[in-house]
Design brief:
CATH superfamily of chain A: Class I glutamine amidotransferase (GATase) domain
Number of helices of chain A: 6
Strand order of the largest sheet of chain B: 8-7-6-5-4-3-2-9
Radius of gyration of chain A: 16 Å
Largest sheet of chain B: 8 strands, parallel
Order of helices and strands of chain A: EHEEHHEHEEEHEEEEEH
Helix content of chain B: 40-55%
Distance between the termini of chain B: 42 Å
CATH architecture of chain A: 3-Layer(aba) Sandwich
Strand content of chain A: 25-35%
Oligomer: heterodimer
Order of helices and strands of chain B: EHEHEHHEHEEHEHHHEHEHHH
Shape of chain B: globular
Largest sheet of chain A: 7 strands, mixed
Number of strands of chain B: 9
Strand order of the largest sheet of chain A: 2-1-3-4-12-11-10
Shape of chain A: globular
CATH topology of chain A: Rossmann fold
Largest interface: A-B, 45 and 42 residues
Structural class of chain A: alpha/beta
Helix content of chain A: 25-40%
Structural class of chain B: alpha/beta
Distance between the termini of chain A: 13 Å
Number of strands of chain A: 12
Chain lengths: ~200, ~300
């Protein structure tokens, strides 16, 4: 099993270290040909406009869409979640004009909790990754986006106390507002690896 | 469950998200939009870029809040702003404005010649400059959540940026080869907190993200700093003091992502127009050197 991490900008090294800790072979992806032979891909946190613009410049957007269309699992954290969304808004902007892979049937709001001083950490109960384990998942939100609307085919995995959806899955797509790669808790990465194993099994 | 804001994890974590990116100095909303469009991962809101601060002389202070707010409203990417070294009230003002990061910067005229800001007292994260490992660890001890090597701002001469990055990264490599019982003396020599010296010796890296700054003017300069081992770059005067800022800004972003790919660096370096004129850092008289500010 080989997992790529989109390495255009942002916290890609943290994902790679987490995956290596789980014994997985990883590849840094900067150009389209580096997507070949991958079983899954993580789009990391960073600045979504930067990631989108660098991806556009080196013709990565279409190959990323094809990668998703092949049924290969893709996980976006924070900026990665924005890049996966079909529609993105922000306070004062109904629709953001920024390059997106645009494959997940959701509308995402950027900087939804405010500016950096409003960034926060909290514990979340995420039954699907906890497998009956009582230990909550410690989630770090940094200038984080949230799901404003998710269509019927998208399943919410985690919510804040007020009902805000902060993690969701649509078939082979996974997206989180927060940063599992900044913690030492591998459960979300293990969950994604299980998605990849399942997709390989059916391929 | 309870939400905690202003924690070390969210402050240092924000800098993790900037890695591999370019932070650009901008002086108005129009420049901020050019920077965002070029792919900057953040902008530094200023009244004057360092090259103009250097030319004008006099006392350089925090920018007018009107200017900073105008830039914050113009872009979706994070906005940083500078406070004078030790001027904790300028920092309070910047926090109240809601800037995403404060740069306690030697580019402005220092307000305190003995003390830096106690950055632990703020919810907003700080970035600070350093010339060597001791200075970096003193700033981190005071609560800086991100570092940048200082270089010599406003010169367009990369030589000091290289000197400072090599100093910090070289000292880290040296620490990794020392015995544990030698670290006490090292902490004394570096004038740095022992716990941080021990952490660096054990992990082989700074506890926070470290960018390069001060004199980066070309895509090759940015890639040089990345290959030396920094996490990203600040470009100050180098963009908006050049002939074609939009094109140069984009080229520097591409070279920072593809820093290990000389073919791409060659391609983006073509036809960028005039680089900023620049001043040789070696020819600067001592009283005009900004990097020596900070203690």
């Amino acid at each position: 099993m080989k997992i790529g991490v989109l390495a255009l900008q942002g916290a890609f090294r943290e994902h790679i270290e987490m995956l290596r800790g789980l014994g997985v072979e990883t590849v840094e992806v900067r150009l389209p040909e580096q997507l070949r032979d991958l079983d899954g891909l993580i789009i990391p946190g960073g600045e979504s406009t930067t990631i989108g613009k660098v991806a556009t410049q080196y013709n990565l957007i279409e190959p990323l869409r094809e990668f998703v269309a092949q049924g290969k699992p893709v996980w976006g954290t924070c900026a990665g979640m924005i890049v996966l969304a079909k529609e993105v808004g922000m306070a004062g902007h109904a629709v953001m004009r920024q390059p997106l892979v645009g494959v997940m049937d959701v509308r995402v709001k950027r900087n939804a909790f405010g500016r950096q001083v409003d960034s926060f950490e909290t514990d979340l109960d995420i039954p699907e990754i906890q497998n009956g384990d009582k230990t909550p998942f410690h989630a770090i939100f940094i200038r984080a986006p949230l799901f404003e609307t998710v269509n019927a085919n998208v399943r919410a995995l985690a919510k804040l106390d007020d009902g805000t959806i902060v993690a969701a899955r649509e078939n082979n797509l996974l997206a989180t507002s927060f940063h599992p790669e900044l913690t030492h808790d591998p459960r979300f990465h293990q969950y994604f690896l299980n998605m990849v194993r399942a997709a390989r099994g059916t391929a | 469950m309870e939400k905690q804001t202003g924690t070390w994890a969210v402050k240092a974590g924000h800098a993790q998200m900037l890695k591999g990116g370019v932070i650009m100095d901008v002086t108005n909303a129009e420049q901020a939009k050019i920077a965002e469009e070029a792919g900057a991962c953040a902008v530094m809101a200023l009244e004057r870029v360092p090259a103009d601060i250097r030319r004008d002389g006099g006392v350089a202070r925090m920018s007018d809040p009107t200017k900073i707010v105008e830039i914050m409203q113009a872009v979706s990417i994070p906005v940083m702003a500078k406070a004078r070294i030790g001027h904790f009230v300028e920092a309070q003002v910047l926090e109240a404005l809601g800037v995403d990061y404060i740069d306690e910067s030697e580019v402005l005229t220092p307000a305190d010649e003995a003390h830096h800001i106690d950055k632990h007292q703020f919810r907003v994260p700080f970035v600070c400059g350093c010339r060597n490992l001791g200075e970096a660890l003193r700033r981190i001890g005071e609560g800086a959540a991100m570092m940048r090597t200082k270089g010599e701002a406003g010169t367009g001469d990369v030589v000091e940026a290289v000197r400072h990055a090599r100093a910090v990264l070289g000292e880290i490599r040296r620490l990794q080869n020392l015995r544990e019982d030698e670290l006490y003396t090292v902490a004394k020599e570096l004038q740095a907190p022992l716990a941080l010296v021990q952490e660096v010796a054990a992990t082989g890296k700074l506890p926070v993200v470290n960018f390069a700054a001060g004199g980066i003017a070309t895509p090759a300069d940015a890639a040089l700093m990345m290959q030396l081992g920094v996490d990203g770059v600040f470009v100050g005067s180098g963009i908006f003091k050049s002939g074609d800022p939009a094109k140069r800004a984009k080229a520097i972003v591409m070279a920072t992502t593809h820093y290990n790919d000389p073919k791409i660096i060659a391609e983006v370096s073509r036809g960028l127009g005039e680089a900023m004129v620049g001043i040789s850092a070696r020819d600067l008289p001592a009283e005009q050197q900004l990097a020596v500010r900070g203690w």
